[in-house]
Amino acid sequence: GWTDGAAPSVAVPPRAGEGFGASEAPRGVLFHRYVLDADGLIRDAQIVPPTSQNQAGVEADLRRLVEGWTGLDDHALQHRCEQAIRNYDPCISCATHFLDLTVDRR
């Protein structure tokens, strides 16, 4: 618990407003914006994580890279794709184990 006698926070009367912020993380910048009503309740929130900002680049790079890896077997190809995804977002490193890769070698 709090032991120094000082209040852990300052009371602030609620009011309408809008706030936004950005914070840097290893995988990119996180943008967020909030709109509060007169009671201080959140009426709108927008959060743009790095993953959604990087998605188009990840997909484009995978398309280009796979063309050069067609000689790999399916398991090795999946592993290389997982590595490429981690280049953009190290937080996906565990989640990429669910990657369901279907290889069409026509």
Structural key phrases:
about 110 residues, alpha+beta, 3 strands, three-stranded antiparallel β-sheet, 2 domains, elongated, 2 helices, single chain
Explain this structure.
The protein has 106 residues and is of the alpha+beta class. It has 2 domains: 32 residues, no CATH class; 48 residues, no CATH class. 32% of the residues lie in helices and 24% in strands. It has a 3-stranded antiparallel β-sheet. Helix 1 runs antiparallel to helix 2. The longest helix is centred in the middle third of the chain and has 19 residues. The chain starts with 16 loop residues before the first strand and ends in an 18-residue tail after the last helix.
Break the fold down into its secondary structure elements and pairings.
Layout (H helix, E strand, L loop, with lengths): L16 E9 L2 E9 L5 E7 L1 H19 L5 H15 L18
Antiparallel strand pairs: 1-2, 2-3
Helix pairs in contact: 1-2
